[in-house]
């Protein structure tokens, strides 16, 4: 039987309507979540504190699982927590962290195997290269083996560079020498050949430090160690670094054949003492009214500035999405942020996408709007 004209008209109207509906549905889903809006571009992650890992507040858990598809432990996998005493490992909270990621089908990042800060006190007392090599091998082997096939990527070495690009005088450098970095990467890769291995640092947008990181990656490659990516932390301000500096960072690292992640993104809206940048935790300054201008709420004009800054940055990220594996915010909402206590204790900063009441800010809309047209 031949279809009549009116049947054909009805049929095509139904098809058009249903595809239109699908479009509306997928757009409205994307509109309601960062992870859906950026699906296929890069992972959108967040850093979890212990209360979030233990799911103390269901509203927070819902927000995390709805918005993000990758997690990083803000503190609980640092050596002072995982191996507080020699050979006494404590995986209680890190097991819960990994279970959280598995339950919500997330990309699970590990932070961090080798770092001079939040270091187990006994590790900081190591005096010779043999003992340091033994400690590095044992710590990395034990932790990577424990989560083999469960943790998707690791920050193997964190913040090994000074601002001028030279190696930081840490206990690792002082005892083992510069090859502690190669040792760490090779040990991790030997245990889990599939897990992605990252070098992670802040202020890599600054030319000298970036050059130091480029040399660090080249040196690993020359020594035959596997490195999959570099994490530029992204503890940034409204004006600095410039978009050009951020772009140069993406291009310089991807030219080495490694992935780039923005691993700890937040944007401080507060005045910075002496133009301080980055995350050198030992730098502290006194609080006063001038330095804490928005103790109650962030004025609308500043919300707009923050939104514009995030919009500019994400436009750039999208331009280079083929080189970027993950963008992780350093916290879920503003009240969690470490910036409320750094570099001045007791201020109120507004660096993230969700406010104190877990509500999306203009900054959130500015990022979503790049992917979902109204
Ligand atoms: O756990 C104690 C608690 O018992 C005590 O009551 C409280 C009093 O201040 O302090 C708590 O410890 C704090 C810890 O965070 C857990 O909240 C430490 O004082 C505080 O120094 C520590 O700060 C962490 C910081 O790393 C330490 O270097 C921040 O939460 C964490 O966000 C920050 O994360 C680092 C990354 O790992 C590496 N890149 C830079 C980034 C920002 O500094």
Automatic annotation (TrEMBL):
A Pfam match is Glyco_hydro_10
Taxonomically, which superkingdom?
A: Bacteria
NAD among the record's keywords? no
Which enzyme class, named as a word?
hydrolase
- The UniProt record lists the GH10 domain at 28-370
Q: Which InterPro entries match?
A: GH, GH10, GH10_AS, GH10_dom
Catalyses which reaction(s): Endohydrolysis of (1->4)-beta-D-xylosidic linkages in xylans
Q: Which GO terms describe its biological process?
A: xylan catabolic process
Reported EC number(s) for this entry are 3.2.1.8
Q: Which family does it belong to?
A: Belongs to the glycosyl hydrolase 10 (cellulase F) family.
Which species is this record about? Flavobacterium seoulense
State a single Gene Ontology molecular function. endo-1,4-beta-xylanase activity
UniProt keywords (A-Z) are:
Carbohydrate metabolism, Glycosidase, Hydrolase, Polysaccharide degradation, Xylan degradation
Protein name per its UniProtKB record:
Beta-xylanase
Q: Which residues form the active site?
A: 264
């Amino acid at each position: 039987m031949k279809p009549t004209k009116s049947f054909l008209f009805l049929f095509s109207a139904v098809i058009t309507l249903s595809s239109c509906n699908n479009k509306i549905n997928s757009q409205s889903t994307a509109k309601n979540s960062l992870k859906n809006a950026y699906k296929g571009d890069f992972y959108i992650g967040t850093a979890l504190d212990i209360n979030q890992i233990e799911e103390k507040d269901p509203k927070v858990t819902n927000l995390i699982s709805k918005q993000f598809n990758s997690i990083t432990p803000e503190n609980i996998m640092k050596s002072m927590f995982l191996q507080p005493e020699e050979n006494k490992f404590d995986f209680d909270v890190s097991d819960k962290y990994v279970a959280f990621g598995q339950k919500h089908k997330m990309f699970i990042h590990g932070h961090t195997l080798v770092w001079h800060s939040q270091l187990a006190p006994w590790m900081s007392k190591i005096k010779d290269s043999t003992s340091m090599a033994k400690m590095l091998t044992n710590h990395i082997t034990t932790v990577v083996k424990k989560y083999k096939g469960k943790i998707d990527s690791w920050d193997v070495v964190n913040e090994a560079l000074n601002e001028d690009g030279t190696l930081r005088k840490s206990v690792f450098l002082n005892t083992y020498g510069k090859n502690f970095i190669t040792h760490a990467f090779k040990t991790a890769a030997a245990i889990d050949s599939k897990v992605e291995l990252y070098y992670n640092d802040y202020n890599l947008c600054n030319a000298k430090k970036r050059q130091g990181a480029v040399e660090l990656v080249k040196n690993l490659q020359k020594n035959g160690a596997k490195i999959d990516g570099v994490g530029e932390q992204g503890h940034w301000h409204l004006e600095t670094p410039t978009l050009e500096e951020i772009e140069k960072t993406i291009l310089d690292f991807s030219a080495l054949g490694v992935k780039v992640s923005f691993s700890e993104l937040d944007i401080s809206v507060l005045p910075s003492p002496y133009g301080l940048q980055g995350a050198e935790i030992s730098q502290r300054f006194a609080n006063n009214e001038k330095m804490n201008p928005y103790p109650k709420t962030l004025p609308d004009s500043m919300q707009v500035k923050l939104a514009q800054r995030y919009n500019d940055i994400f436009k750039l990220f999208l331009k280079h999405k083929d080189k970027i594996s993950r963008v992780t915010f350093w916290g879920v909402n503003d009240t969690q942020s470490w910036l409320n206590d750094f570099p001045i204790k007791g201020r109120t900063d507004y660096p993230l996408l969700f406010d104190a009441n877990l509500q999306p800010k203009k900054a959130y809309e500015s990022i979503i709007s790049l992917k979902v047209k109204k």
